[in-house]
Every structure is written in C-alpha cells, then in structure tokens.
C-alpha cells in the first residue's frame, strides 16, 4: 500500500507562519511524522509533496493514478478556491482524506467552503500535525475495508 501526502501553499512555512494557529513545528517535522505514521498504519511507502502552485498540485494528483493507493491532502488556501483540485481528485478516483491543521470551522467565513472535501471520504480539522497521523490511519482502514 502506497500513500501520497499533498500539502498546498505556505505549509512549507510551518513553524514560522502564524505559530499561534499552526504551531511551532517545521514542515520537516511534519514529513518525519508522516513517514512514521504511514509505517504505523501499515503503508509500505509514503511520499510527501508540497507546492505553492495550484497547477503543480493538479499535476501531482493526476500522476498519482496507478501509483498511489490513497491520498491525504491539505490543499491549504486552495481548499476554499480550487475547483481544479476537486476535479483532479474526482478524475483519478483515488480514495482521499482532507486534513487541516487548524479548526477551519471556527475561523473566518471564507474558510467555511471546501471544494476538495467533495472528493474526500473523511475530513480532519483542528488536530494540529497529529491530524496527518489520524488521516493516514483512516486512509489505511478505508483501503483495507475496500480491498
Ligand atoms: C489550512 C487552513 C486554510 O484555511 C489555510 O489557508 C491554510 C492551512 C490548515 O491546515 O489549517 O493554509 O489548510
């Protein structure tokens, strides 16, 4: 089983950007956490991909077809704007979990819309970086039940 973790814009700035909201841990810490969490959940392989560019994220989702069994995605700001990322997730039909570090439901009105969510079987918010561990666990469970 292979998992792909996708992070959108400014997630590479973890630890520097708004630590009161996103915490003080770095993106490198998140990558290490995902590697451990994926192994714990039973994945043989995990790749972490981060981009600040919408098209690069769409490309990565398309390239995942036939390569990865499941996706954990935090589209970051593109969550609230990107029909292209939603369409890409729908196009490849790879089971996906949406993760947000912060409790988006408690934040501004413009964060209340999630396009990507429409193509995800679960959403995790407000658990900090641990949300990715949770997401990988749910993804593994879903893939095992589906198989
Ligand atoms: C985020 C929430 C988004 O609203 C925001 O634009 C982000 C990060 C989160 O992980 O909490 O960049 O996706």
Topology readout:
Blueprint (H helix, E strand, L loop, with lengths): L1 E6 L11 H4 L4 H15 L3 E6 L3 H10 L6 E5 L8 H10 L3 E5 L21 E4 L4 H17 L1
Parallel strand pairs: 1-2, 1-3, 3-4, 4-5
Helix pairs in contact: 2-5, 3-4
Characterization of this structure:
This protein is α/β, with parallel strands linked by helices and about 150 residues long. It has five helices and five strands, in the order βααβαβαββα. Helix 2 runs parallel beside helix 5 and helix 3 packs parallel to helix 4 (about 85-90). The chain is globular and about 35 Å long. The structure holds 1,3,4-trihydroxy-5-OXO-cyclohexanecarboxylic acid. The site of 1,3,4-trihydroxy-5-OXO-cyclohexanecarboxylic acid (DQA) has 10 residues, from loops. 1,3,4-trihydroxy-5-OXO-cyclohexanecarboxylic acid binds near residues 10, 76, 102 and 111.
The chain-level structural class is alpha/beta
- Beta content comes to 15-25%
Largest sheet, in brief, is: 5 strands, parallel
Bound molecules: 1,3,4-trihydroxy-5-OXO-cyclohexanecarboxylic acid
How much helical structure, as a percent, in the residues?
25-40%
């Amino acid at each position: 089983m292979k998992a792909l973790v996708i992070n959108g814009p400014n997630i590479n700035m973890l630890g520097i950007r708004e630590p009161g909201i996103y915490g003080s841990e770095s993106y490198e810490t998140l990558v290490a956490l995902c590697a451990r969490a994926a192994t714990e959940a039973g994945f043989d392989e995990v790749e972490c991909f981060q981009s600040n560019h919408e098209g690069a994220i769409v490309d990565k989702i398309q390239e995942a077809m036939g390569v990865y069994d499941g996706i954990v995605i935090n589209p970051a700001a593109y969550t609230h704007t990107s029909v292209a990322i939603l369409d890409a997730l729908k196009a490849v039909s790879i089971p996906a979990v949406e993760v947000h570090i912060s409790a988006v439901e408690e934040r501004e009105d413009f964060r209340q819309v999630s396009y990507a969510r429409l193509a995800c079987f679960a959403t995790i918010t407000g658990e900090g970086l641990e949300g990715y561990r949770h997401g990988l666990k749910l993804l593994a469970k879903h893939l095992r039940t589906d198989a």
